[in-house]
């Protein structure tokens, strides 16, 4: 059997490889260097230590690091992980980032700044490591509320939040909520009343009278308040769905549970973007087909499924209209994840689309057009032109 790529594969690989992507949901890069153990911890969504006798480097994502990132640090593909970490440590952190981020081929990064920002470089510093690219902010709703929690009483919490949100969204590209982590999608879909908000705020703030307690909003009424005020801004609203760290209950993160809320949001005209979705990418595809304001990506799943990611990408293109699927990496921390999101997406899309072209089901021109929609054009339409 010939191992030569088909003409369609070669043409698609060239076109998709040349695409300048929009990473519509990503985080910043690490501010400090990491050693072997730290890198292993950062290549999993779990916050627990690995089981005895196992290694975090025996995983799809870690094998992908050794395959695709090692050459950029001067090593052969598949170099042992110890050699890889040594080569990484021999370079300044910002140089590692310049090599890996630069190779991703991303021209617009929409960065969620709401999670552990103290461990990451600022947006300005990130921008300095990706010269020529645009860097914009996605504002996390829960983080905004938590930032003003102790600035007054329960009666004024909603108004404090609205003032802080108006300030935080100046120039922002969009918003994000992690209600999937904090509660799940099985929430009352209606907008809470001011009385409900004040009562919920009194319970939450009472727990924060202990100064050692770090503010973390998880009251379902307050989370609903955040969602509805997010909708009111008119900015694109991202919702984490599906797979994540052990902090969430995956059974309650199926986006189908959002259907009643999505019906209520639809008249507002605000777009809702379901992030990552695995293993619910088919359910998300149904919602994207059913509702004009719903979009999806499979970003986080692509990195963590590695060489198996073409299957996930193919499933995301089953029911969803092609104008409703976006690219993201959801990379947080090591710039290896920023690069791998792009590399694995390009390779996976090339494999999937080539298969359909070779079967005579698609033309090369249509395949290139769909890849361009997913890789950049859909995000440019949803988020508008570059801001700030």
Radius of gyration: 21 Å
Helix-strand topology string: HEHHHHEHEHHEHHHEHEHEHHHH
Number of strands: 7
Helix content: 40-55%
Largest sheet: 7 strands, parallel
What gross morphology would you assign?
Answer: globular
> Beta fraction of the residues?
5-15%
Instruction: Return residue spans where pLDDT drops below 50 for at least 5 consecutive residues.
Output: none
Order of strands in the sheet with most strands? 1-2-3-4-5-6-7
Number of domains: 1
The CATH superfamily is Metal-dependent hydrolases
CATH topology: TIM Barrel
Number of discrete helical segments: 17
Q: How far do the termini sit from each other?
A: 53 Å
Task: Describe the secondary-structure layout.
Blueprint: H1 7-18, E1 21-26, H2 36-42, H3 60-69, H4 81-89, H5 93-102, E2 106-112, H6 123-129, E3 134-140, H7 141-147, H8 157-168, E4 174-177, H9 179-182, H10 194-207, H11 220-233, E5 237-241, H12 259-265, E6 272-276, H13 281-290, E7 294-296, H14 299-305, H15 309-316, H16 335-358, H17 364-383
Helix pairs in contact: 1-16, 1-17, 3-16, 5-16, 7-8, 10-11, 14-15, 14-16, 15-16
Description:
- It comes from Nocardioides simplex.
- This is Nodulin.
- GO terms for molecular function: hydrolase activity.
- InterPro entries: Amidohydro-rel (IPR006680), Metal_Hydrolase (IPR032466).
- This protein is α/β, with parallel strands linked by helices.
- It has a single domain (7-34, 93-383), classed as TIM Barrel.
- Helix content is 47%, strand content 10%.
- It has 17 helices and seven strands.
- A seven-stranded parallel β-sheet has the order 1-2-3-4-5-6-7.
- β5 (237-241), α12 (259-265) and β6 form a beta-alpha-beta unit.
- α1 (7-18) packs parallel to α17.
- The longest helix is centred in the C-terminal third of the chain and has 24 residues, at 335-358.
